[in-house]
Design a protein that fits this description.
Chain lengths: ~400, ~160
């Protein structure tokens, strides 16, 4: 028989998290710090709206681009929060932010077009770019720059083939954020080099110093930016699978076309619940952010106590401590930690080669759980820290 | 800062104050100082423990009693409320808007004990016009805490 699987897919490496997940799942009593979703339940009034919608029998397709009411709420929300003004026909409701990543790549890329992807970052950008026929060009971000993308780094990687820049801030896995000044610097390069931007702002609400600034709000940027956001992180709605893209009408129109053929529309039930989230969810978001921020401070304090170096993250719900001094790869470290202390973390290398030497630690856990897991981590670090010293002597 | 401290203490008054300081991004002395000041000012009125008495297999009966009263000239409801809240078996007294005036929460060991209180002490007060007693059959949630089993974390161990 001939080869069933297309080469493009065959050659796509599996997610680095998968392998680790399989090992961790085999074990009993694992405390995980490896989860990339909120520990909070979706606020009750939002769930209630979902239930009510089902009771009312609102179980049909919506328009391809998404419910009009929802798109109107999204326009209002993005306007009031991030000062980016969009009209109804500049918004597409998608199945999670992930679908929007895929759509944007498929709509923008010609075969051979380069996609500039800063790493460490979310695992989907590179595969989506490759599947869409693009070529990924990785920009390795550095801890000395607090894992922000600098103008110099961008300039060093951009070529004549570069078409799209992925801008993943606040960042998963590092927790890095870009300030307005940082964005202004790179916006200049983006315009000079005539790039488009896929700005993945799914963690925008989870910013702990100042407020999040969207690159779409900078002068001259809206027309070359696809702003991506969603309900998963801000409203603790991961399982509802709902995100959205805002952008220039011509691009959104084409993304809607692909979405129409591939997906039809995002889940109706989730869309109604999301309307409720945007109308009456500000207090919930604020409460969750305050809780994450407290945990973030606690986590950093504990890293300090156990001598684990970590730059201070100001966004998302991850910290990215360095384990370079232990003389192990991040995967070895994570494996040992799992075996010795039954704590699961994600090795930084799962988010790109330059994540090597780091761990992603999620603080989407209750303080009690964090405390226990960190006590185990501390025990591990201290045991190993001693080992390292002995070896050197 | 005070509101944040109170929010945490309300949920867990036994929280380690050093930890609380870290969480709030301040130092322990500030937290200790604020708490002491709020105790002085009677903003913090006490530290209680939320107990599921059913599980402790101790006999306890809780009743909610709606009380209609005649307010007294110059004193309103305060003096009759005081008469009532001075009984040690009375746990809470609230002035209520709507169909009745005072909501009294009473705790006793047996049904008889509670009934006796209502018929002998409460109803016989001169300004009390009527009472309606409701016995609590089961507590599902109290002080924002659900008395059922702690739910397991259903998230997958690891997600990107």
């Amino acid at each position: 028989m001939r080869e069933a699987i297309a080469r493009k897919v065959r050659e796509l490496p599996p997610s680095g998290i998968r392998k680790f997940f399989d090992i961790a799942s085999e074990r009993e009593g694992v405390l995980s710090l490896g989860v990339g979703e909120p520990d909070f339940d979706t606020p009750w009034h939002i769930r209630d709206e979902g239930i009510y919608t089902l009771e009312k029998g609102r179980t049909f397709y919506t328009s391809n681009a998404g419910l009009k009411e929802l798109r109107a709420e999204i326009c209002r929300y993005v306007g009031r929060k991030y000062h980016a003004e969009y009209q109804l026909d500049e918004v597409l409701v998608t199945v999670g932010g992930s679908e929007a990543i895929d759509l944007a790549m498929r709509v923008l890329l010609e075969p051979g077009d380069e996609v500039l992807i800063p790493q460490p970052s979310f695992v989907s950008y590179e595969p989506c770019a490759v599947l869409a026929g693009g070529v990924s060009r990785i920009i390795e971000l550095k801890e000395e720059n607090q894992f922000r993308l600098t103008k110099e780094e961008l300039l060093a990687h951009v070529t004549d083939q570069s078409k799209l820049l992925v801008l993943p801030f606040p960042n998963n896995p590092t927790g890095a954020v870009m300030t307005k000044e940082d964005l202004e610097e790179i916006a200049q390069v983006i315009q000079e080099k005539d790039l488009y931007v896929l700005s993945d702002e799914i963690y925008a609400e989870l910013t702990y110093e100042g407020t999040h600034v969207s690159i779409a709000s900078l002068p001259g940027m809206k027309e070359r930016t696809i702003l991506l956001n969603g309900f998963s992180k801000a409203f603790a709605m991961t399982g509802w699978r709902l995100g959205y893209a805002c952008g220039p009408k011509e691009i959104i129109e084409q993304m809607t076309k692909v979405h129409q053929f591939a997906i039809m529309c995002a889940p109706t039930n989730s869309q109604y619940a999301a309307v409720e989230a945007l109308r009456n969810g500000d207090d919930d978001v604020e409460e969750m952010r305050a809780a994450y921020n407290g945990r973030r401070r606690y986590l950093m304090h504990r890293f300090g106590e156990m001598g684990l170096p970590c730059f201070e993250p100001y966004g998302a719900f991850y910290a990215f401590p360095s384990v370079k001094k232990f003389g192990m790869t991040s995967e070895e470290f994570a494996l040992q930690l799992l075996e010795k202390e039954n704590v699961a973390v994600v090795p930084g290398s799962a988010f790109g080669r330059c994540g090597e030497g780091y761990l992603r630690i999620s603080y989407a856990y209750s303080l009690e759980d964090l405390k226990e897991a960190l006590a185990r981590l501390e025990h591990f670090v201290q045991t190993f820290g001693k080992g390292v010293k002995t070896c050197r002597i | 800062m005070r509101e944040e401290i109170l929010t945490f203490l309300e949920k867990n008054s036994r929280i380690d104050l050093g930890e609380l300081a870290v969480i709030l991004g301040t130092d322990e002395a500030t937290v200790v100082g604020e708490i002491a000041a709020m105790e002085q000012e009677k903003i913090i009125c006490g530290y209680h423990t939320l107990i599921d008495w059913d599980k402790a297999s101790t006999e306890r009966i809780t009743a909610l009693i709606e009380v209609r009263v005649t307010p007294q000239r110059g004193q309103g409801f305060d003096s009759i409320a005081e008469r009532i809240y001075n009984y040690p078996e009375v746990r809470s007294v609230y002035l209520i808007s709507g169909g009745y005036d005072l909501l009294v929460i009473l705790e006793g060991k047996t049904l008889q004990e509670v009934s006796r209180f209502v018929s002998d002490k409460l109803s016989t007060l001169e300004s009390v016009l009527s009472t309606a007693t409701h016995f609590i059959l089961k507590k599902y949630k109290d002080h924002g805490t659900i008395f059922a089993k702690k739910q397991k974390d259903e998230r997958m161990l690891m997600t990107p």
